[in-house]
Design goal:
Layout (H helix, E strand, L loop, with lengths): L2 E2 L2 E2 L1 E9 L7 E5 L10 E6 L2 E3 L1 E10 L10 H7 L5 H7 L5 E6 L8 E6 L11 E7 L5 E8 L7 E8 L6 E7 L6 E9 L2 E12 L5 E11 L13 H7 L6 E4 L3 E3 L13 E3 L3 E3 L2 E2 L3 E6 L4 E6 L3 E4 L1
Antiparallel strand pairs: 1-2, 3-7, 4-5, 5-6, 8-9, 9-10, 10-11, 12-13, 13-14, 14-15, 15-16, 17-20, 17-24, 18-19, 21-22, 22-23
């Protein structure tokens, strides 16, 4: 961004994908002329090592001065403490962002999780993640601004689901080209502080053996680091990372089936004590089930179930 005495003279925004550097630290965009409408070439490196990269989309922003420079999201949040649902919808373009509406602080009020989503060609459009807590007067207040862990090449957003106690949420990403690999990040809210309570990696080894590795944490989001299981040998994967069970027995008197948005159904659908059910998908908190002759799908809280190996 070249500057003059009044502020930013010229700048570019670009969507960049690096293929062989996990966290590149230097980016140089080139153009044919100073006032080109888009960056046309790119040089990316990590600690001096060149990386392969592509520009998916770029555009120029001309003659932005200090007086007219658009507000960043961060400055907007400082100026406006609460937002209506319509204001959030206007701020975050639904072509770029996905909205999730469920309770994340266990106060019985629905909150909003807003994050960049993949585009129609499954290209990552950004990695911003915002948590807005709902208030009693139907407004929303920013609680967390972080990333959705899709910043590394090849990882894409899969889904975001609530925790079974509705204190936090689970964010899942997947790797496009290797062994159906998934990562799940378990966000928790304790004493108004966001923590990463658990990290799970799951998939299939090159030998065809499935794995499910759990790393327990209780760290501030900004201090969180993960990936211990990435250094496991094949034997360690088989010993330390057994896959989750596919069959479960109901141990509670009733196990309610929530709909695909984790809401109670009318009329209620549930399994009863002693029923054995098969999981279509599962994580640490929930199993996804099919019912009514596989015509419907829903979620069941694992706290009322026992895994059957």
């Amino acid at each position: 961004m070249p500057f003059d005495g009044k502020g930013i003279k010229h700048s570019y925004t670009a969507e960049i994908q690096s293929f062989d550097c996990a966290n590149f630290d230097t980016v140089i965009l080139g153009t044919a002329t100073l006032n080109a409408n888009a960056a046309q070439s790119i040089s990316v490196s990590q600690k001096g090592k060149p990386c392969k990269a592509e520009i998916y989309e770029s555009k120029s922003i001309e003659n932005i001065t200090a007086a007219t420079k658009p507000e960043t999201n961060a400055s907007k949040y400082k100026q406006h403490q609460q937002f209506t649902s319509n204001e959030l919808a206007k701020t975050y373009n639904r072509a770029l962002y996905q909205f999730y509406d469920f309770d994340v602080n266990a106060d019985g009020i629905k909150d909003k999780i807003i994050t960049h989503k993949n585009d129609k060609n499954n290209v990552q459009q950004g990695d911003d993640l915002f948590i807005y807590l709902g208030t009693s007067d139907s407004k929303y207040k920013l609680s967390l601004e972080t990333n959705n862990f899709t910043d590394e090449a090849g990882w894409f957003l899969s889904d975001i689901t609530p925790r079974s106690d509705y204190s936090g949420f689970i964010l899942t990403t997947y790797f496009a080209d290797r062994g159906h690999s998934e990562q799940s990040f378990y966000f928790g809210l304790q004493d108004d502080k966001w923590l990463m309570t658990k990290y799970v990696s799951a998939g299939t080894l090159i030998t065809g053996v499935p794995y499910y590795c759990i790393e327990n944490h209780s760290s501030d989001i900004s201090d969180f680091s993960y990936g211990e299981s990435s250094g496991y040998s094949e034997a360690e994967f088989e010993k330390k990372c057994p896959p989750l069970a596919n069959s479960y027995k109901v141990t509670a008197n009733k196990a309610e089936i929530l709909d695909q948005d984790f809401n109670p159904q009318t009329p209620s659908n549930y399994y009863v004590k002693g029923d054995v059910i098969e999981a279509v998908a599962k994580n640490e908190d929930w199993i996804k089930v099919s019912y009514k002759q596989d015509s419907k799908y829903g979620w069941v809280d694992k706290r009322g179930l026992k895994a059957l190996r």
